Amino acid sequence: MDINLTIPAIEKLLDYAASGIGSIAGPMLAPWKARQEAKARSIATQEESESQRILAEGQATTMGIIASAQADARAKLVSSDAVVQGQLDLGTLVTQRIQFQEEKRQANIGSIVRQAALELGDKEVQDYEVDHDWTARFFDDVQDVSSEDLQQLWAKILAGEVERPGSTSYRTLRVLKDMNQDVARIFSWFCSLCIYSEESVVNVDARICSACFHIFSTKGFLHSHLNLLNTHGLVNPDYDSWYDMQHAIGFGRIQPDQTNRYPFRFQAQYWVLYPVGGPRSVKPRSPGFPLQGASLSQSGLELSKVVQMEPMDEYKAALIDHFAREGLRMTPVDSGDSHVGPLYIEGPGQ
């Protein structure tokens, strides 16, 4: 008989950290482990305060290391004795440079692991063997990530992998490694514009509506930004591809005998397209009901799960108008609606 054992997620995070960085993982996560064992949970405001303190502490540590190294470097450069007498000890300088680099890397890793611990909180996960190749790749990539915004993305990826092993591929790790803050900002914007269609676990699509492009192009989101995301492997190269949205046209409780429909997700809300004139107003479409526009790549889909949605009110209004011109009303639904198909994937920013 199979027995599904669950353990605190923080324990599995410790396994990941130990696999990636060795014995120092224990002391790094000791405060969180102790709080888990004692079941001592803070109220929401205290958790937020602790989160901000940890982020500030990690940033301050990194900046302190950099400032100290810079001050030391300036002292050596302005030392007339060292310059005039040629007494620069290259071996010492190399050692100091390596020490500075490794201390900064350790600070980066520590900040990301601690933020992942905050993401996981009191959750429990299935007990399983950690993929040591994945952890080696992950911690090798994150050691040079000093940006606070990018550290948050990496921390969410690590927390997500703890909860759902295999959710982030090696290819996606490479994509994220090459991402800078500007690309991350544009990617977050693109994800916030996407319509996510999830007919099954393997049949997932996310794309913007090209018919509404005028809304976000006036806000500064240009064709060049699509090219940038494509260069980084986040969107597919065909910006005019389409996806059949026929699956989202449903009739709710008016005709409960209709086949269940699968909603689409937009701005962390699920929606169906309801015919304005009722079921009889729906005319056969060929091919189906295409939604045309640039779409997320597989790596883009994986990373979109950890992106925080940004409000896009004008675009949402344009999207509602677009469907209305097709005789369809964009209607919000709940996951508990018995006449809506299963909701498969946890959305971005959830």
Task: Please provide a written account of the structure.
The protein has 350 residues and is an alpha+beta fold. The protein contains 13 helices and nine strands. It has helices at 9-21, 25-38, 44-77, 80-85, 90-120, 132-142, 148-163, 170-177, 181-193, 213-217, 223-231, 298-304, 313-325, and strands spanning 6-8, 124-126, 195-198, 204-207, 242-244, 264-266, 269-275, 290-292, 328-333. The strands form three sheets. The protein has a five-stranded antiparallel sheet with strand order 4-3-6-7-9, sandwiched between helices. Strands 1-2 form a two-stranded antiparallel sheet. The longest helix has 34 residues, at 44-77. The radius of gyration is 25 Å and the shape is elongated. It starts with 5 loop residues before the first strand and ends in a 17-residue tail after the last strand.
